[in-house]
Structures are given as structure tokens and as C-alpha cells.
Amino acid sequence: MIWICFFIFLAACFAAGTTGSLFPPGKWYEDLEKPRWVPPNWVFPVVWTTLYLCIAAAGARLAVTEGNAIAMAFWALQIALNVLWTPMFFGLGRMRDGMIVISGLWIAVAGCMIAGFQIDPISGLLFAPYLVWVTIASALNFSVMRLNPNADASVRTA
């Protein structure tokens, strides 16, 4: 791994992470009914910091590996969808659209993990916790959407 690559990928990850501060959950989300298993708020920055370090390390390893085209395409797709989900869900309050985005994110993360395993197993492993977290986040998105069927902004404006 070339360290300059790691820091470039890390900058991309933390740039993506800024959407969390630009579009915080706010009162709209606080007022929604949520399942009992929602992680406490302090968990999110700890998990995302750890995940972004793993995602950057995987990206940097993949970037310098021969035959990386598909893995890098999935890496680019996952970071784009990662950026999109927070403003969709928290910024616009569109839980159904957020579910579509996070479903695509899950596919992109799984694709990057599988492609990564094929050319650099450590990169694939570095994506495994991310896939677990996106699975949990998808279940949470779905549960909140199901528990609050009339709270989605797309329902309110329809």
C-alpha cells in the first residue's frame, strides 16, 4: 500500500462523512418511532470512523493492485451512495428513497468486498465490517420506515 493513496482515500471517506454533520438527524428523526435495538447516538461516530479507516485502507490496497478495475468501480459507487443516503434520509426525510439508496449501497459494498477478495483478500476482509454495518443500517431504515408510514416526506407531499 502506498501511503499517499491511503490518505487520498481517507480524505474521500471523511469528505463523504461530512454529510452526517451537514444533515444531522434533528427533531424530525427524534420524533419518529424507532425499534428497541437502535444503537445509542455515540456509537455512530465511533463506528463510522473505524469503517472509514478500513474503507480507505481497502481502497488504497486495491488501487495499486493489478486487475483492480471492477473493485475500484464498486469502491467509487459505494462512496457515492454513502454520500447520498444521509441527505436523502435525514435532510429530505425521504425514508423510502433512502431505502432504495441503502439497498444500492449494500450491493456496492458487497460487490467491492467480493471483487476485493479476488485480487487482494485483505481488502475484501476490510470491507466485511462495512457490509455488516450497512446491513444493520438497512434494517434500521426499513424498521423506521415501517413504524412511521406517514412520516416520509414523499408521503407528506404526495
Written description of the protein model:
With 158 residues, the chain is mainly α. It has a single domain (3-156), classed as Ferritin (Up-down Bundle), CATH 1.20.1260.100. 78% of the residues lie in helices and 0% in strands. The chain contains eight helices and no strands. Helix 1 (3-17) runs antiparallel to helix 4, helix 1 packs parallel to helix 5 (69-91) and helix 6 (95-119) runs antiparallel to helix 7. The longest helix is centred in the C-terminal third of the chain and has 27 residues, at 121-147. The mean pLDDT is 94.
Quick structural gist:
By secondary structure, the chain is mostly helical. Helix content is 78%, strand content 0%.
Number of domains: 1
Q: Provide the structure class.
A: mainly alpha
Could you state the order of secondary-structure elements as H and E? HHHHHHHH
Kindly state the mean pLDDT as a whole number?
94
CA-to-CA gap between the ends?
Answer: 50 Å
The CATH architecture can be named as Up-down Bundle
Gross morphology is elongated
Relative helix content: over 70%
User: How large is the share of residues in beta strands?
Assistant: under 5%
Name of the CATH class: Mainly Alpha
Radius of gyration from CA coordinates: 16 Å
Major sheet description: none
Strand segment count? 0
Q: With helices defined by DSSP (H or I, 4 residues minimum), what is the helix count? A: 8
CATH superfamily: TspO/MBR protein
List segments where confidence is low: pLDDT < 50 over at least 5 consecutive residues: none
What name does the CATH topology carry? Ferritin
